[in-house]
Amino acid sequence: MTTQRVPRPQPRFPEPDTEPFWKATKDHKLTYQKCNDCNTVVFYPRRHCTKCGSANLAWHTSKGLGAVYTFSVVVQNRNPSFRDLGAYAVGYVDLDEGFRIMTNVVGVKNPSTDVKCGMRVKVKWEDQPGGEISLPLFEPA
Ligand SMILES: [Zn+2]
């Protein structure tokens, strides 16, 4: 049986704060911001530094390598976008550049036993229908 998967909910543009992040995902670039005044790493994307309030932020590209900070396994999701996934892991990944992202940990046989806190992971892009964005998911490194 073939199933037509319903796309995940997508960001809606214009979205001034996060649009540069999403545009970069199209090229499989995981971007984050860093404050030019106090060097604080800022994520998710914003207009101001979370430490000093400066608007002097610059975009950088992550290597896409990090470690699972924590996760949970969703055993059943009735939302049509996720219904056919089976059990899947939702978690936070700490990137080596110093920011934390909520994501899915994929590429494991059984998310309940194969995902561990602290395990090394790398970004795995999931291109979205329409080709406007790609989602940064993570798999074992
Ligand atoms: Zn700052």
Can you tell me about this structure?
With 141 residues, this protein is mainly beta. The protein has a single domain, classed as OB fold (Dihydrolipoamide Acetyltransferase, E2P) (Beta Barrel), CATH 2.40.50.840. The chain has 2 helices and 8 strands. The strands form 2 sheets. The chain has a 5-stranded antiparallel sheet with strand order 6-5-4-7-8, with no helix packed on it. A hairpin with a 5-residue loop joins strand 1 and strand 2. The radius of gyration is 16 Å and the shape is globular. The relative contact order is 0.20. The mean pLDDT is 95. Zinc ion (ZN) binds next to loops.
Quick one: CATH class?
Answer: Mainly Beta
Number of strands: 8
| Average pLDDT over all residues | 95
Strand order across the largest sheet = 6-5-4-7-8
Structural class: mainly beta
The kinds of small molecule bound in this structure are:
zinc ion
- Write down the secondary-structure element order: HEEEEEEHEE
CA gyration radius, whole angstroms = 16 Å
User: Percentage of helical residues?
Assistant: under 10%
How far from one another are the termini?
Answer: 32 Å
Choose one word for the global shape. globular
The fraction of residues assigned to DSSP E strands is: 35-45%
CATH topology: OB fold (Dihydrolipoamide Acetyltransferase, E2P)
Query: Number of folding domains?
Result: 1
Oligomeric status: single chain
Total DSSP helices = 2
The parts where pLDDT drops under 50 for at least 5 residues are none
Task: Give the name of the CATH architecture.
Answer: Beta Barrel
